[in-house]
Amino acid sequence: MKGILISLLAVLVFVGCGGKVDKKSQYNYISADETAKIMRENPDKIVLIDIQETDDFEEEHLKGAIATYAYPVKTEEEKARIAKHVSDIKPDQKVVVVCPRGGGGADRAYDFLLQSGIKKENLFTLTDGQYGWPRDRLSDVLDK
Predict the structure, then answer these.
(1) What angle do CA 97, 55, 127 make, to 5 degrees?
(2) pTM assigned to the model
(3) pLDDT for position 11
C-alpha cells in the first residue's frame, strides 16, 4: 500500500508540474541590436507591429513601425487594429511586436498574430519593448 501511495504521489507531482509552460520557450524574442541590423540592412524583410498607446508612439517609435494603438490587446476592437495589417505581411518577412515593455500586451499580440496565420518562425517580440530600447547606441532607427 505504501508503494502505491508513493507512486501515486510521484505521478501527481509529475503531472502537476507538467502543465506549466516556460514563457521563454512559448515565444520568440529578438534583441534591439538584431532588430536594428535588419532595419538597416534589409528593411523590406521586417514588419514592426507597434502596439503602444497613441501618446507613447507619438513620443518615440521605430522608423517604419506600423502604429496600431492596440495596447493592451485585450478587446476585439484592439485585436481588429492589428488584424487589418495581417494581409500586408509577406511570408518571408520577420514580424516584430513592439510593446511598451515587451510583456503581457506583446504576448497577447503575438498570440493573436500566430492565430491569424503568421508563422512562429517569423514572429518575434522585441526584448524589453520600446522602453528598453538602447537609445545611446541605436538612435539612428528611432523616430520622434
Answers:
(1) 25
(2) 0.83
(3) 40
